[in-house]
Each structure stands twice: as structure tokens, then as C-alpha cells.
């Protein structure tokens, strides 16, 4: 009560100047002082409470102090929904939202495979073998051309009316058959070597992808061609192939790990 805030001045009598027993002139002054003291105390208390509240609770829209609170640790997080509860849990480093093996949230990456395969195939260790086969083929081809040239010079005077023409024609056709057989064999060797090199380059690319994915904890890596790359095509068929190679129509740049894989390959 307010009367308790201001004690009686006289020691011999118990009571307060604000009570009915006090003289009127002192009672009025005492009550007025009590009210002022009570109001000041209330204002001071309110000011302290407001100050503490402002210190504890940031203002709405104030981003100067980001939240640092952490939820958990917990084994599971249950989310309520109209179709039932959804339970989130950790499963071997992945976020699981069901019991099915496919009910997982997996991280994804993408690699520009055509670009890296081309760089690998153009590297010295792959190019040297192709150059060696090409040099051998060019040398053998030059031998065949010299034989044809010598044959034509030797039989330059032979005409279809010449008696020896059927024999000369048969010999020439035999030489052409031999050349075509050699040409097919050489092309087969080149194709076989190219196929082996592409597979080897592909296996090395996969190994590099696995290393980068393990470091970055990426679960799925797909091949892609950036949508901004120009089309290298002069026919409708090749242009259509360029479209089919572009698996993603829109994607965040962060999923592109081509440069990291390229560095792992030493390109």
C-alpha cells in the first residue's frame, strides 16, 4: 500500500503522515510524495523490463545478429501433414524420409563428358598411338600409289583394242582389290584403336568422378552439356543430337563439377 512508502516522522507514535491520524497539512504532502515515489518506482521498473526485453528479443527485420540456435540433436524429426506424418532421419550420411531404399535425399553433380573425353583423346599418351598407326598407313598408302603409278606408266600405250588389254585390265583389278582390302583392314585397325582409347578414357573419367564425388559427398553424377555451348552442327541430324545431349534445361551452376574432375585428371 502507498501509505507504507513514507513513515511517520515522530518516533513516539506509530503511523504515517498519510493516515487519518496525521495533521491535514502533513497528510496531504505525505500522500503526494508517496504517490510520486510509487509512480517513479513503477516507471523505473517498466524501463528496466523494456530494456531487458529489447536486449533479449531482436527487432523484426534486424539481420545484424543472425540466429545461432541449433535444433537437436535428435534421432528423428516428425512433420505433420494432411496425408500423414513424414519422418526425417539420418541414413548412412543421407537424409531419409521413408523406409524404401529410394526414399532418400541425394546430392547431385554434373560433368561435361564430351568436353573431358575430347581433352583426354587429344592428350599425348592417346594421340601418339594414333599418330603411329596413321604414319604406318600413310607409308603403305604411298607404296600402293607408287605401284599404280608405275603400272600406268608401263602400260600407257595399251588401249581397249590392244590384244593384251584383258590381261592388263585383270592385273589392274587385282591390284585395286588388294588396295581396297588393305584400306579396309587399316580403317578397322584405326577404329579398333579409337574404340579402345575411348573406353580407356571413359574409365579414367569415371575414376576421377568417383574421387571428386567422395570428397564432396555427392551421391549422383550425371553427364550434361551446358545450354550456353554453341551447336557444332551443319545438318538437322547433328543439330538434333546437340539438343539430345543437353539433358538439363535449367540448373544451378553449383552442380557443375567439370573443372574439379578435369583437375583430378590432370587436364
Protein model, in words:
The strands form 2 sheets. Strands 1-2-3-4 form a 4-stranded antiparallel sheet, with no helix packed on it. Strands 5-6 form a two-stranded parallel ribbon. It is α+β, with helices and mostly antiparallel strands and 267 residues long. The protein contains 6 helices and 6 strands. The two termini are 87 Å apart. Mean pLDDT is 81; it is low at 1-22, 25-31 and 33-58. It is elongated, with a radius of gyration of 46 Å. α2 crosses α4 (165-216), α3 (124-154) packs antiparallel against α4 (165-216) and α4 (165-216) crosses α6 (258-265). The protein has helices at 24-56, 113-121, 124-154, 165-216, 236-245, 258-265; strands spanning 76-79, 86-91, 94-96, 104-105, 108-111, 220-223. A hairpin with a 6-residue loop joins β1 (76-79) and β2. 54% of the residues lie in helices and 9% in strands.
Number of strands: 6
Helix coverage percent of residues?
40-55%
Cα-atom Rg, whole angstroms? 46 Å
Order of helical and strand elements: HEEEEEHHHEHH
Q: Alpha-carbon distance between the termini?
A: 87 Å
Q: Which descriptors would you attach to this protein?
A:
alpha+beta, 6 strands, 9% strand, 6 helices, 267 residues, four-stranded antiparallel beta sheet, two-stranded parallel ribbon, disordered N terminus, elongated, single chain
Amino acid at each position: 500500500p502507498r501509505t507504507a512508502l513514507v513513515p511517520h516522522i515522530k518516533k513516539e507514535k506509530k503511523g504515517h503522515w498519510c493516515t487519518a491520524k496525521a495533521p491535514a497539512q502533513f497528510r496531504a504532502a505525505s500522500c503526494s510524495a508517496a504517490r510520486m515515489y510509487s509512480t517513479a518506482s513503477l516507471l523505473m521498473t517498466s524501463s528496466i523490463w523494456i530494456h531487458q526485453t529489447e536486449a533479449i528479443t531482436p527487432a523484426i527485420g534486424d539481420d545484424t545478429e543472425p540466429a545461432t540456435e541449433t535444433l537437436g540433436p535428435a534421432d528423428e524429426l516428425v512433420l505433420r501433414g494432411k496425408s500423414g506424418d513424414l519422418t526425417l532421419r539420418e541414413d548412412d550420411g543421407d537424409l531419409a524420409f521413408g523406409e524404401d531404399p529410394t526414399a532418400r535425399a541425394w546430392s547431385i553433380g554434373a560433368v561435361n563428358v564430351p568436353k573431358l573425353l575430347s581433352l583426354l583423346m587429344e592428350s599425348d599418351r592417346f594421340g601418339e598411338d594414333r599418330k603411329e598407326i596413321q604414319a604406318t598407313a600413310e607409308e603403305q598408302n604411298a607404296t600402293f600409289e607408287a605401284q599404280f603409278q608405275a603400272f600406268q606408266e608401263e602400260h600407257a600405250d595399251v588401249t581397249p583394242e590392244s590384244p593384251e588389254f584383258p590381261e592388263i585390265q585383270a592385273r589392274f583389278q587385282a591390284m585395286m582389290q588388294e588396295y581396297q582390302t588393305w584400306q579396309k583392314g587399316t580403317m578397322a585397325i584405326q577404329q579398333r584403336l579409337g574404340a579402345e582409347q575411348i573406353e580407356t578414357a571413359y574409365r579414367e573419367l569415371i575414376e576421377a568422378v568417383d574421387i571428386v564425388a567422395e570428397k564432396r559427398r555427392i551421391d549422383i553424377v550425371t553427364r550434361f552439356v551446358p545450354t550456353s555451348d554453341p551447336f557444332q552442327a551443319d545438318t538437322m541430324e547433328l543439330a538434333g543430337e546437340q539438343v539430345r545431349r543437353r539433358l538439363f534445361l535449367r540448373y544451378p551452376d553449383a552442380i557443375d563439377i567439370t573443372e574439379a574432375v578435369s583437375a583430378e585428371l590432370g587436364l
